[in-house]
Design goal:
Layout lengths: L7 H9 L4 E5 L7 E5 L2 E2 L5 E6 L3 H9 L1 E8 L5 E14 L2 H8 L5 H14 L3 E15 L3
Antiparallel strand pairs: 1-2, 1-5, 3-4, 4-7, 5-6, 6-7
Pfam families: PNPOx_N (PF01243)
Keywords: Oxidoreductase
Protein name: Pyridoxamine 5'-phosphate oxidase family protein
Length: about 140
């Protein structure tokens, strides 16, 4: 543990909070796909995302089977967690899957509006499960 108390259990708890993450997936013919997204995580568990199966990130992830997720915050402390991931599997998303993930980030009318938009614009969404394989984290506040 460092002097700030930001050790691996604290990093896992931080990752379990509803931050917007950036998932980076290697691409063989150019820069990686690095896009912000919502995710779900419980300490010592897997990470799940809901994303269109036809998206570049989903296609690359299916090919490479690995990715890195980075989340950070600047208030009340400057902290980040970066975790390498391996693909566990994917399956078609249900309305309950979409709602559960979006409800971590939105409430009320914003949640309902998002769900209506997603149903219309992302009909091929899937739930992707990723297993953490390597952790990097720091509290840069000092």
């Amino acid at each position: 543990m460092d002097e700030t108390g930001f050790d691996q259990p604290a990093a896992q708890a931080f990752l379990a909070d509803p931050h917007v993450g950036v998932l980076a997936v290697a691409a063989p013919d150019g820069p990686p796909a690095a896009v912000p997204l919502w995710y779900a995580y419980e300490p010592d568990g897997d990470i799940t995302i809901v994303t269109p199966a036809s998206s570049r990130k989903a296609r690359l992830l299916e090919h490479t089977r690995t990715a890195t997720l980075v989340v950070d915050t600047v208030e009340p402390r400057v902290r980040y967690v970066s975790v390498d991931l391996e693909l566990v599997g994917s399956r078609p998303a249900t309305d309950d899957d979409r709602r559960a993930l979006a409800a971590r980030y939105l409430t009320g009318g914003a949640l309902e509006g998002y769900l209506a938009m997603a149903a219309e614009q992302f009909p091929d969404e899937q739930v992707t499960t990723l297993r953490p394989t390597h952790w990097r984290f720091a509290d840069l506040t000092g």
